[in-house]
Amino acid sequence: MNLRGIAAIDEPSAQPSEHEGDAVAAALADGKPYVALAIAARDLKEQGESYKTLSSVAKVEAVLGHNIRAKRTWKRALHFKHDAQAYAGLGSILVLEGDLDTGVAMLQSALALAPQDASLLSAIGLAYLYRDDAVSARRYSSRALYIDPANNEALLCRARADLFLGHIHLAQAQIAALFRSGYKIDEVRLLQVDLLAHLDEFESALVLSADLCERYPASDEALLAFRRAFRAFQRSEDTDRYRSFLDALSHCWDSSAVPLVNTSPLDDGQRLDIVMPVHNAPETTRNSIESILQRSGNRLSRLIIVDDGSGAETHDMLMEMAVRDGRIEVLRCEQRSGYTKAVMQGIARSTSAAFVVINSDTLVTWDWLESLYSALKSDPKVAMVGPLSNNAAWQSYGPVFSEHDGFRVTPIPDQPLREAIIAGSAGGALVPLPMLHGFCILVDRVAYDAVGGFDSTTFPEGYGETQDLSIRLGSAGHRLCAVTECVVFHEHGASISIQRRGTLSRIAREKLYARYSALNYLCIEMICCENPHLGAVRNAVSAEVPFKY
């Protein structure tokens, strides 16, 4: 269990400052942090650098979440005076940034100067929670409560630690006390999710954590709490209860049934169009295009590239490749329209009975298109199929989750490892799933049109549109399958920054929650992530490849 809560670690009040100006403190108390910052900055300019002026600025910067600035200002303040408040402020920021050892050391330095400060002891306890050290967290929070029995932050910290340590009844009593106090109710509710799961009240845990996800869509901790509760429910001995819970939800079904068996390659003469939206990243895009042209065989009809407002370098490269290979057709959008609209332009251009949508940061493997097409035609109910990959969440051939339970990002392996991965995933099974990852899909055109296709209005940027299409296809009675013998490598976000990806992912989740409810959507997602047949494929691949590259 991860021990962190919804909110960030609070900066301790360590010694409410005798140095802090009355006007700055008053502005903060009135909920006007920018006014406080203006006053503190004015004092710094007029009076020059001193511990008093710098600590005042740093404290306001920390309140505003300007952590890089606050860290720098606290360090400058420490040149003038070794003060508990400065060490505490700096240590709290370092803990938030993940530099846990240095952050704890700074907090310990503050404690040496103010050994009876309960808020500081509580902050150190929280820092140890970030290190997943529940024993130390409990020790420091207990010391804080001994000094100040009314310190609810320390009580919250100790409740988390007790729950992690298996002191269920102690945690239960402390959570009840926190509810009575009204302190940080939603953080306490988040902690209650894990308590309910410990008590085998899985349905309540999932409903509560899903509600927190809807209210705090940017909170990783609410999402991770849901995943922990779902995993505990799925792995409990009461499988009938688990399946009954899923049956009661909308758009949600258990995908642990025996997988289908893929058929041999079809010699029906059917050819397929591939739609690839492109926005810059010329070298990555070139590599992706070349892999498709080299490895798609006679099944490829056209590679329809939608140049979605790329710069001159990328556009010129695309036109040059189109001149060299007649299978390439380039559609140009002078202004960027967004991923989903670009895809839909390509689909509108396609004339094949089924089409592929693929990202421009992928590398396909030999026979990939034949494998996907054979899978699509293996059963009349199958309307959409997708491959496995290094970066495809639940369709990853390696670990789905990282150490802290977020989706793992795995780099494209070197060539020798690629061959071993492909060998490990071979077997021809089609794993039915309620949802497919959108980095590479093959879709039946009739089924696609019947459900209305992609929703570019709600999901314009390429996040959430395939999940939404998957759910609508499933609700219409179609099957979706992961093709375990097909591997397409995925660089993941070559044309977009990490920060932008995070923002788009959060926005997509909000919209999916609004359309299907967080409870429904997150259960669908976890059904995919915890599919036992894909788990067996991962075990087979891991026997060939150690996932440490």
TrEMBL record:
PROSITE patterns: TPR. Keywords: Glycosyltransferase, TPR repeat, Transferase. The keyword Disulfide bond does not apply. Residues 274-399 form the Glycosyltransferase 2-like domain. GO terms for molecular function: glycosyltransferase activity. TPR repeats lie at residues 84-117, 118-151. SUPFAM superfamilies: Nucleotide-diphospho-sugar transferases (SSF53448), TPR-like (SSF48452). The keyword Electron transport does not apply. Pfam families: Glycos_transf_2. InterPro entries: Glyco_trans_2-like, Nucleotide-diphossugar_trans, TPR-like_helical_dom_sf, TPR_rpt. Belongs to the glycosyltransferase 2 family. This is Glycosyltransferase 2-like domain-containing protein. It comes from Paragemmobacter aquarius.
